[in-house]
Each structure stands twice: as C-alpha cells, then as structure tokens.
C-alpha cells in the first residue's frame, strides 16, 4: 500500500496554514501606500517627519525657489517635509526615479506654456536626507538606471505603517 495518508496529511497541513494566514491578515488590517489617497498619505508622512525631527531643514530653505518657473519661495514653512513625503511616495509607487526625472515631475508651466524644471538641489538634498534615515537607497544593481533611488525594506515598513494609520483613521 502506498503512503496516501502522508499526502492527505500534507494537504490538511497546507489548508490549516492557509486559513491561519487568512485569519491573521483579517484580524490585523494592513494597508500599503498604494491603498490610501495620495494627499492624505503625504500630509500624514510630512507630519511624522516633522514631529520626529527626521529631516534637517537647511538655512537656505526659506529663500530658495522650488523651480525655474516660480518667482518666490514657498509660503508654507513646512514645504520641505511635504516635498520629502511626496518624493518618498513617488519612489515607493514607482521606483527607480532619478533627480532629472523628478525635476521634470515637480516642475511647473510658465505663462507662455513652456514647461519649466523644478529645483534639482532641493530634490538632491531631500534624497540625501531620506537616505540618512534609511527610507531610500541608491540602486547600483540596476542595469538601466544606475544610481536611481529605491525604497529600502525599513523604509517600506515605515511608509506602510503610516499608510495603515491613515487608512484606519479614514475608516472611523
């Protein structure tokens, strides 16, 4: 007689593991950055960065423009935290962004319809700050986009934790 009971036991063990994992996932809700609205997540993550002093604001932040198409510096005092949160979210959603791509993304349209680039120094500085707190890292293994940024495992856990808090607050 062949060992059919062993196969049946393995099937039951796999079914038990599946239901245990399903129950565990249902009992502890988990959301990612992609599951929550961008505006809510960016606001919550900017507040987290500010409250925990994760990013140092340089002296030049109050006088710098955020792009070529701008005339004055931002009015909001916390604009650097908001920009850092937006950068972290953008790289989480679609990794392998570089400074050049993001200057285009954060640029603006001038009066004559020409698209002006955003500030590269601000993006480079925020990349360095996010790398220091281990949210982002340079990806030197990629064949196509060497030196582009990706989210680290610690950063992904951090961002998902904030996203879960945002989603649970929205459910209430």
Automatic annotation (TrEMBL):
Belongs to the eukaryotic ribosomal protein eS19 family. The keyword Zinc does not apply. GO terms for biological process: ribosomal small subunit assembly; translation. It holds the Pfam family Ribosomal_S19e. It comes from Paramecium tetraurelia. It comes from the Eukaryota. One of its GO terms (cellular component) is cytosolic small ribosomal subunit. The keyword Lyase does not apply. This is 40S ribosomal protein S19. Keywords: Ribonucleoprotein, Ribosomal protein. One of its GO terms (molecular function) is RNA binding.
């Amino acid at each position: 007689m062949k060992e059919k009971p062993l196969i049946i036991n393995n099937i039951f063990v796999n079914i038990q593991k599946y239901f245990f994992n399903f129950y565990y996932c249902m009992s502890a809700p988990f959301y990612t950055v992609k599951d929550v609205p961008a505006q809510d997540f960016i606001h919550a993550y900017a507040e987290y960065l500010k409250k925990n002093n994760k990013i140092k604001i340089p002296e030049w932040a109050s006088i710098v423009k955020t792009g070529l198409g701008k005339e004055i510096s931002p009015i909001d005092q916390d604009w650097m935290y908001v920009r850092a949160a937006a950068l972290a979210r953008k790289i989480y959603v679609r990794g392998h962004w570089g400074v050049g791509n993001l200057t285009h993304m954060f640029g603006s349209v001038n009066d004559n319809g020409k698209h002006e680039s955003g500030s590269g120094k601000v993006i480079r500085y925020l990349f360095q700050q996010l790398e220091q707190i281990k949210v982002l890292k340079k990806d030197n293994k990629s064949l196509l986009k060497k030196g582009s940024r990706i989210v680290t495992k610690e950063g992904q856990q951090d961002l998902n934790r904030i996203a879960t808090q945002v989603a649970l607050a929205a459910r209430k």
